[in-house]
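note to self — DONT lose this again. spent like an hour looking for the file last time. sequence + predicted structure for the chain T wanted, 432 res
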Amino acid sequence: MHNITMNMPPMVQTFNPDELFTRRCIWVNGPVIVGAGPSGLAVAACLKEQSVPFIVLERENCIASLWQKRTYDRLKLHLPKQFCQLPNFPFPLDFPEYPTKFQFIKYLESYASYFNITPQFNETVQSAKYDETFGLWRVKTIRKSHSGNCSNEFEYICRWMVVATGENAEKVVPEFEGLQEFDGHVMHACDYKSGLSYNGHKVLVVGCGNSGMEVSLDLCNHHASPLMVVRSSVHVLPREVFGKSIFELAVKLMKHFPLKVVDKILLILARLILGNVEKYGLKRPSEGPLELKNTTGKTPVLDIGALKKIRSGKIKVVPGIKKFTRGKVELVDGRVLQIDSVILATGYRSNVPSWLKENDFFSNDGIPKNPFPNGWKGSVGLYAVGFTRRGLSGASLDAISVSHDIAKSWKEETKLKKKAVASHHRRCMSHF
């Protein structure tokens, strides 16, 4: 036989279906999960356990893109691993109590492989809207083709939608007067990897949360001179108390005492172990660390060595910024300091309001309006995972709740469909 492909014109041989179809409509027999970070993977795994089909949409080219692409190299989990594992899959026994960034990424990749979760990568959700006429969600996306020559549009139709993009989807970059005139290097902490290239530099770190503290510490360890901007009050707690995680201690205390009492205990322990941090420019908030976390989502800093550098003067604490000029920064106290670089450890925010249309489940800042533990379920088949402000443990609890709720509805609807098909079949047979 002749090989007919030998006589085909070149256009046929290089045919790429991605470039032919620019728009497709896809029915999903189950939920659409938006986001392939730990939250999205947790929901997907729990749905697998319930035998519910789904699709996971991810705008990046990998799972857990925040961890893989937007974290610094020295990062470790701030809490012991038993509080960070996802449902039905413990950490390996040989992992340390506080796994590194790279170990956690390996754990997540093993998680996705074990549960056979294969997200649709390079696909960005443009809009998601509930169609009241048909009682279905319409999720419109743009997918980059493998060749990169074009982008294709898709519309997914589904009964349930899970928002798993998380609280940290987009970086927050505040506006500062004169920053455009500053001729040094400026970056957000999400782009910072290591202090290796900052040897001998004066670096202004804007922000004093866990990222700001750890970036300052890393810069210090690489022989840079960090100046850390503390614009507001902050709680600094020891990561461990007498060899035990302070978070684990707080969890145990909460079983026996009211929140305000636990907060007082934590602050007494912090004062005994860390001393009076206010004399170094780290003023404590009037609310306790747990109360503040519950009401505002602001996480206390768990010290892993930065405070020692602050005491020694190797990390200098400075007040808020008034403006930048060429190679310099003017502070609110009138001082003008010469600096080489700026790192904005100014946090992240949710991006849900930019694509979820006409829905009152989320507030304007992209967080569910109902506080934990009731923020995982909205109306008309809408769910949220990873917005508890309680880290990975909160996301895991939400994932379990969401999967059980969807599985119940999905199984009921599947049973009704089978009955309807059987009834239709019987009617058809009766005509013969």
